[in-house]
Amino acid sequence: MRGAGKSHWWAALNSEPHRHYLARVFPEAKIENEIVCSQGFGIGLDPKRSPSKDTLAALSSQYKPRHVWQAVIGLQAGLPAPFPQEAPTWANRVRWVRDSPEEYARLLYETGEEFFQKRQRRLLLFDALDRLADDWAGLRPLASALFQVALDMLGNRGIRLKLFVRPDMLEDRQILAFPDSSKLTGRKADLTWQRADLYALLFQCLANEKTNGATFRDHCRQLLRITWRPEGQDIWVLPDVLRHDEDIQKKVFHALAGPAMAMGQHGHKSGFPYTWLPNHLLDSRGQVSPRSFLAAIRSALDVAAPADWPYALHYKGIQEGVKQASTIRVKEVTQEDYPWVEPLMLALRNQIIVPCQQEEILTRWKTARTLDTMLSELPMSSGVRLLPLHLDAGPQGVLEDLKNLGIVDYISDGRIQIPDVYRIAFGLGRKGGVKPLS
């Protein structure tokens, strides 16, 4: 999902100091110090080392996408001559790979064995795969070929590929329509964040804040006798108890935010801040973006608490933080990744109260001719890349796409529910819920 940390891991793995830190502090991540990383595709890379989207389009019109990716791997893995490392163009390398399949296979194997014998591992990273092309027709052959090459590389003992992929790409049957694709998808690691993970991230950030980090660490020590271990210069390692123990996490957070989401003796009936905050940031798949979580905390601090309030955060600030997080989340989805979502939800704004019957949504789309409007207007937008996967199935298919993105869900009685992290900024009502933004 957007904001789950793909680019963060991409950057961390490309940084040798960060890799060494992770290997020491988080051994369960199994990041070896002997790993050497390089970037096969991503945003903002040197076009001489990684082909741009336009270069990929030109190459794939003349050569098989498989040969293109093999050339990228050859360059990033440092294959020796006769592989044309210093060739002036990507076309020169791709042409050599196409014309020298046996030579390429031999060099790739020998290079991988050399890494393995030296107890090294070459890790080639591929990010921003939704930027491979402007539409599904152009993206699918490139993505499918990359996945197939990654599957082939599982047999190489010294060279590996790591692909950072959006869920909708893995759900596209055409991309994975090749033999043994399940062997590749079976090795995927989902970047999902549990509640304890989110608070662990928050506490790690607070403890390492340059100005007031010492105050927070002292707060933990006085409250629960939790001590922080230094790692290197000015880096403090999160204690295990604050990574996994939700009861302890709750005590620490409530010492910052208060014990309830309302005043008075029965304020707890409105919820507890520790659970209330992430619960209102969940999408329909039960996931919370760490970016949304931290944005909510940051916005909560902007709400002034009463003078006699003894905590750093006020519950009204937390409520306002959820509204701001919803706004940020919706902007990310509609302006950056899935622009086609905006006209769909605009047709429902101030018109429905969720949960509602599926037919109520489909009827409003039909009456407003929303899908026709979406198709006629979106191609004029420079940001549009990928239309809904199931557009051919009409409104019902688009509704399924919204479900797959975590924007809508079906509850037990068959009605449609939209979680607060989207509902509020999209301007949809819910009885008893946080008021939508007008």
The helix/strand order is HHEHHHHEHEHHHHEEHHHHHHHHHEEH
Global morphology: flat
Work out the helicity level.
Answer: 40-55%
Biggest β-sheet strands, sense, barrel: 3 strands, parallel
Q: What descriptors fit this protein?
A:
21 helices; 7 strands; 438 residues; 3-stranded parallel sheet; flat; single chain; two-stranded antiparallel sheet; 3 domains; mainly alpha
Overview of the molecule:
With 438 residues, this protein is mainly alpha-helical. The protein has three domains: 6-185, no CATH class; 195-332, no CATH class; 334-426, no CATH class. It is 49% helix and 6% strand. The strands form three sheets. A three-stranded parallel sheet has the order 1-2-3. It has a two-stranded antiparallel ribbon with strand order 4-5. The protein has a two-stranded antiparallel ribbon with strand order 6-7. Strand 4 and strand 5 (236-237) form a beta hairpin. Helix 4 (65-76) packs across helix 5, helix 15 (290-300) crosses helix 16 and helix 16 (315-337) packs across helix 21.
